[in-house]
Amino acid sequence: MSISLKKGNRFNLTKNEKGLDKIMVGLGWDMVPGNNLDLDASVFMINGSGKLPADEYFVFFNNLKSPDNSVEHTGDNRTGKGDGDDEMILAHLSKISPQVEEMVFVASIHNAEVLRHHFGMLQNAYIRIVDIDTQREIVRFNLDENYSGITDMEFGRLKKTNGEWHFIAAGEGSKIGLQGYVDLYA
User: Which of 21, 121, 127, 185 would bridge with 155, disulfide CB 3.0–4.6 Å?
Assistant: First the structure.
């Protein structure tokens, strides 16, 4: 049975899921009827200083694999149509470079400013972690606040503390755009 988290909750994957190594981080959402927008998932693999060790540790639709081959974005879903995860990021925890201490999972709306799109045009947004080997959902965080006016979202983080991976449900919206996140972590 999956654990449902609230904003700010933390879950120790290493301690609670013995032997967990290959995970799928799924992000999903539905459009409020009458809306159509392109949401893009990204992951920033950052070091202890809160920065990317190299530009290639920013994994997104134009850079689908991390340089250590531990993280892979499965590709851009431009419509969000259909059931289940709209964008997925695969991670092999034991292969993640030791210099990476945290992974920040962000979704941004493509051309949000120009098209006046925002997260209020979405519903049923979530992030979840699935054990690839068993196909079992381990943890889920549903974004259930009103995010009208917000153009991008930090859905969650995986943070390595004392050799253990913890998932943190973030739900932190902003209006800085994808470039704003790049500027923050580069």
Answer: 127
